[in-house]
TrEMBL record:
The keyword Protease does not apply. It comes from the Eukaryota. It comes from Sander lucioperca (Pike-perch). This is Acyl-coenzyme A thioesterase 11. SMART domains: START (SM00234). Its EC number is 3.1.2.2. Keywords: Cytoplasm, Fatty acid metabolism, Hydrolase, Lipid metabolism, Mitochondrion, Phosphoprotein, Repeat, Serine esterase, Transit peptide. It holds the Pfam family START. Residues 26-138, 189-300 form the HotDog ACOT-type domain. The keyword Cytoplasm applies. It is found in: Cytoplasm; Mitochondrion matrix. Its main location: cytoplasm. It catalyses: butanoyl-CoA + H2O = butanoate + CoA + H(+); dodecanoyl-CoA + H2O = dodecanoate + CoA + H(+); hexadecanoyl-CoA + H2O = hexadecanoate + CoA + H(+); tetradecanoyl-CoA + H2O = tetradecanoate + CoA + H(+). Has an acyl-CoA thioesterase activity with a preference for the long chain fatty acyl-CoA thioesters hexadecanoyl-CoA/palmitoyl-CoA and tetradecanoyl-CoA/myristoyl-CoA which are the main substrates in the mitochondrial beta-oxidation pathway.
Length: 557
C-alpha cells in the first residue's frame, strides 16, 4: 500500500525541488526546530508526548493559516503512531504543509523527525494528518496547486483520506462482538483519573482560544496516569487514534479531564480520555475525546468488563488499528498481494485499492514504449517492479465512460482476456467483489482466475478524475480450484478524465505481477500490438453504448 507521507528529509534542508530553474519550496510549508530540554521531558528523560503534540499542532496551524490567510482551528487529527521516543538533548524537526483544501477545511500533513547533533543522524519519529477549519464566515479556500510528484500524490490521496474520516465512526458498530472474561482481571474503575485545569492566558493561542495542542497535552497526562495505575510501571504511549474537536474552549474555562483504561491486551492497553469545559454555573461542554494505546513490556493484569460498552469498543478499535497498520500504513512493497477481505476491513482495503492507483497516476517518469492507432503504451521500471499504462481518447462523455467501464461483468465484450466475470458480492455502491477467469497463455495449459475488489470513485472536484481501482483479495468462500491457477493483481485500474463534454481521456494502469506479465510481455518487448486491438475494441464498445441509458444508474437517468 501507500506510505502515507512521502516527503524526503535530506540533511537539514527539508523538501526542496528545482522548479523553473529556481529552488522551489512549497508556499504553505512551515518548519519548527526545538531542542529537547529537561523541562520538556518526562520522568524517563524522554520528550513528553504532550509537549510534542503542542509543537506539532502549532506548526500545522501556522501552515493552515498561511494558506487560508485567516485564523484557523484544529478540527481533527488522524491516527498517530510514534515509532521512537526522543531523549533530552536531541533536536525535534517538524515540517507541516497543506496537502489539499476543500470548501472551508484543509488537510495539513505533519512530519516529525529527530536529529542527533553529535552524530548528524536523523530518523523519523511520526507523521500525522490534521484537518483545520478557517474561522472566516463565507470562506472559500483557494485550491492547492501541486508542483512536484510528491505533492500531486498527497493532493490526490487527501480526498480519499477525507472520505475515510467521514465514515470512520460507523465501523465500530459493525465490529462489536462477544468477548472473553479473564480470571486475573481487575476492575477498570481502579484506573479512573479525573483532573481539572484552569485555562490561563499562556494556554491560549493567538485567537484567545485554548490551544489545541495544550488540550492534547493535558489529555495525554491523565491518560498516562490511568495506564500507570493498571501496570504499576511507566508505560510508553505508542499511538493515538483519530479524534475530533467538538467545540472550542477559552481563557477562564475550567477544563475537566477524565481517563480510564478501557481494555488491556498482551503488552498494551487502550485508555479512553475526554475533555469537558465549563465556566461558572454552566453545564459541561464536550471538547474532545481520544483513545490512546500504551505499551508495557512486562505482564500486567487484564481489566474487568465492568464497562461493557467501553470494553467491547476497545476490542473493535484494536481490530481497526491492526487493519489500518496492516493495510494502510506500510509501504506498497510491504503489503501482501492478496489481503483477506471481510466487511470490517472493507473501508481500508478500498482506501488501499484507490490510493495505489492514484500513486501510479501521479508518477511522471513513464516511458513511451509503443503507439498504434492512437493508443499509447507506456512502461515504468522502479524498485525492481514493472508498471505499464495504456492511454487513449474516446468521444464519449466521462460519466458514461465511468459507468460502462466500472461494470466488470461487461468487460468480456471488449477484452479477450476476460472469459468469465461474475459478481461475488456487491459490498456497497462503491465496492464490488468479482471472480474473473482468463484463458491460458500456453497451449493446453491451465487458465487463471482472480478474485478482484473493484472500487469506484467519482471526482471530488474538477481537478480529480473518475477512478476504477482493482486489486486482488482472498475470500474463504472462493478458494483456488483444480481447473485454474489463482492469479493475483497488485494494483490496476482506470483513470477517466473529462477533457470536454464529449471527449474523455482514458488511462489504464497495471502494476505487473507474475500472473499478469505473460499477457503483456510481448507488447512491452515490442513483439506484439495486441494491447492496441484490445483498447481499440474498448473504444468501439464505449462509443456503441454511449447513448445507452442502461449504463447509467437509476439516479443518473
Amino acid at each position: 500500500m501507500t506510505e502515507p507521507l512521502t516527503w524526503k528529509i535530506t540533511g537539514r534542508e527539508g523538501d526542496f525541488h528545482e522548479h523553473n530553474d529556481e529552488v522551489y519550496r512549497n508556499p504553505t510549508e512551515v518548519k519548527m526546530s526545538q531542542i529537547v530540554l529537561p523541562c520538556h521531558a518526562n520522568h524517563c528523560g524522554e520528550l513528553s508526548v504532550g509537549q510534542l503534540l503542542k509543537w506539532m499542532d502549532s506548526t500545522a496551524c501556522l501552515s493552515a493559516e498561511r494558506h487560508a490567510g485567516c485564523s484557523c482551528i484544529t478540527a481533527s487529527v488522524d491516527d498517530i503512531h510514534f515509532e521512537h521516543t526522543i531523549g533530552v538533548g536531541k533536536v525535534v524537526n517538524i515540517i507541516a504543509k497543506v496537502n489539499r483544501a476543500f470548501t472551508s477545511s484543509m488537510e495539513v500533513g505533519i512530519l516529525v523527525n529527530c536529529e542527533d547533533l553529535y552524530t548528524d543522524r536523523q530518523w523519523k519519529v511520526c507523521h500525522a494528518f490534521a484537518t483545520f477549519v478557517a474561522r472566516r464566515t463565507e470562506v472559500q479556500l483557494k485550491q492547492v496547486l501541486p508542483h512536484t510528484q510528491m505533492e500531486q500524490m498527497e493532493y490526490s490521496l487527501a480526498a480519499e483520506r477525507r472520505r475515510m474520516r467521514l465514515i470512520h465512526a460507523e465501523i465500530i458498530t459493525d465490529l462489536l462482538s462477544s468477548s472473553t472474561e479473564y480470571q486475573d482481571a481487575v476492575p477498570a474503575e481502579r484506573t479512573r483519573v479525573e483532573s481539572v485545569e484552569l485555562v490561563l492566558p499562556p494556554h491560549a493561542n493567538h485567537q484567545v482560544s485554548t490551544f489545541g495542542g495544550q488540550i492534547m497535552a493535558w489529555m495525554e497526562n491523565v491518560a498516562t496516569i490511568a495506564a500507570s495505575r493498571l501496570c504499576h510501571a511507566h508505560p510508553t504511549l505508542r499511538s493515538i487514534d483519530m479524534f475530533h474537536f467538538r467545540g472550542p474552549s477559552h481563557i477562564g474555562d475550567r477544563l475537566v479531564l477524565k481517563a480510564i483504561v478501557n481494555n488491556s491486551f498482551k503488552h498494551s492497553m487502550e485508555v479512553g480520555v475526554c475533555a469537558e469545559a465549563y465556566k461558572g454555573g454552566e453545564p459541561l461542554r464536550h471538547i474532545n475525546s481520544a483513545f490512546m494505546t500504551f505499551e508495557v513490556l512486562d505482564r500486567f493484569p487484564h481489566v474487568l468488563q465492568d464497562g461493557k460498552r467501553r470494553y467491547l469498543e476497545a476490542v473493535a478499535r484494536k481490530k481497526i488499528r491492526l487493519d489500518r497498520k496492516y493495510i494502510i500504513s506500510c509501504k506498497q512493497t510491504e503489503v501482501p498481494v492478496s489481503v483477506p477481505w471481510d466487511p470490517s476491513n472493507q473501508m481500508y482495503l478500498s482506501y488501499n485499492n484507490v490510493s495505489a492507483l492514484k500513486l501510479m497516476d501521479a508518477r511522471n517518469n513513464w516511458v513511451l514504449t509503443f503507439e498504434k492507432n492512437k493508443v499509447r503504451l507506456y512502461t515504468l521500471e522502479e524498485n525492481h517492479m514493472l508498471c505499464f499504462k495504456v492511454e487513449m481518447h474516446v468521444s464519449v462523455p466521462a460519466e458514461q465512460t465511468f459507468h460502462l467501464l466500472s461494470d466488470l461483468s461487461r468487460r468480456k465484450e471488449w477484452d479477450r482476456h476476460y472469459e468469465e466475470c461474475e459478481v461475488i458480492n456487491q459490498a456497497d455502491e462503491d465496492d464490488t467483489l468479482y471472480r474473473v477467469v482468463t484463458p491460458s497463455v500456453t497451449k493446453g495449459g491451465k487458465g487463471q482466475d482472480f478474485i478482484l475488489l473493484a472500487s469506484r470513485r467519482k471526482p471530488c472536484d474538477a481537478r480529480d478524475p473518475y477512478l476504477i481501482a482493482l486489486r486482488s483479495v482472498t475470500l474463504p468462500t472462493h478458494p483456488p480450484t483444480e481447473n485454474s491457477t489463482r492469479g493475483e493483481v497488485l494494483s490496476a485500474g482506470f483513470t477517466i478524465w473529462e477533457e470536454s463534454s464529449t471527449v474523455t481521456k482514458i488511462t489504464y494502469y497495471n502494476q505487473a505481477t507474475p500472473g499478469v506479465l505473460p499477457y503483456i510481455s510481448t507488447d512491452i518487448a515490442g513483439l506484439s500490438s495486441s494491447f492496441s486491438s484490445t483498447f481499440s475494441a474498448c473504444s468501439h464498445f464505449l462509443e456503441a453504448n454511449k447513448d445507452s441509458l442502461a449504463a447509467l444508474p437509476h439516479s443518473a437517468q
